[in-house]
Amino acid sequence: MSAARDETPAVARQRVRRALRKARQATPLIQGDVAKRLGWSLSKVQRIESGEVAVSVTDLRALLAVYGVRDEAAIEQLARDAAIARRQRWWITPEYRKHLTPGLRMLLQFEAQATTVRAYQPLVIPGDLQTPAMAEHLLSWSDTSLTDVDRKVRFDVRMLRAKRVAERDDSPAYLLMLDEAVIKRETGGREVMAEQLESVAEIIARRPNIHIRLVKLAMGANLSMMGPFTILDLSDDDHEDAVVYRESYTDDTVDHDSETVGYYRQRFESMWPQCYDEIDSLRLIRAEAGTLRASLIRDS
């Protein structure tokens, strides 16, 4: 595996998507008008603007001509981004790619470019903060939708993501909201859970870029119904240049729509100040780890 942190296909696609959307919005044209002028389907224009597909350099130039963009330097930069966006191989080898979902492949690229990550998890410790034992336990859940090779690849990728968060000097700011129920749930058994909580409190939380808060049990019900989600800001323009990642055990999505991202951001930001603060959150995590360790000692 190798990384090209400054040029990832998913991030380049995001830059092109934003530029094309802004260029169209600077004209009186709606998406249907653009489709008619170019002889395209409306869905093609919509997929390009949503970031669902990567636009070819030829189609990019056609769109920019319709929008009246004449700045050659800007056009050439977007053409380079469009070429990067259509690359299929990045960071992971082909034999790994086929065992990862499209959403996860994009997430890996966005994580490499992110300036700020906001994550909410109502069920378990997030994958990029899991210990090897915890990741192994969660991926070993009896479900025929994943093969043994799928699980091995996802374990390897999860461990590499964890290493990035814990060891990379240029890691993004990472704001994590955990539902308080997460630390009370003995996922993987007492030994595995104790080790996981100790890792969060004594290793991960010591990183200056990582900030962890617990959502109080009395307040977390409504938010938990939204399921886990992660918002990734890709530049200082967090209103436009951001995506939201949502996942379940077998399915995941990356959404570029600014209204959708804004909705999840608003829910996160409104709950963050209502959580236990970072000091008290870590005290509670350490206390749960201590309780599990004490029970293991008594039972030995």
Strand-helix topology:
Layout: H1 9-25, H2 31-38, H3 42-50, H4 57-66, H5 72-85, H6 94-97, H7 102-113, E1 116-121, H8 132-139, H9 148-167, E2 173-179, H10 180-184, H11 190-202, E3 210-215, H12 221-224, E4 229-233, E5 242-247, E6 252-255, H13 258-271, H14 278-299
Parallel strand pairs: 1-2, 2-3
Antiparallel strand pairs: 1-4, 4-5, 5-6
Structural summary, described in words:
Helices cover 53% and strands 11% of the residues. It is built from 14 helices and 6 strands. It has helices at 9-25, 31-38, 42-50, 57-66, 72-85, 94-97, 102-113, 132-139, 148-167, 180-184, 190-202, 221-224, 258-271, 278-299; strands at 116-121, 173-179, 210-215, 229-233, 242-247, 252-255. It has a 6-stranded mixed sheet, sandwiched between helices. Helix 1 (9-25) packs across helix 5 (72-85) and helix 11 (190-202) packs antiparallel against helix 14. The chain starts with 8 loop residues before the first helix and ends with a helix. Mean pLDDT is 87; it is low at 1-5.
Keyphrases for this structure?
single chain, 300 residues, alpha/beta, six-stranded mixed beta sheet, disordered N terminus
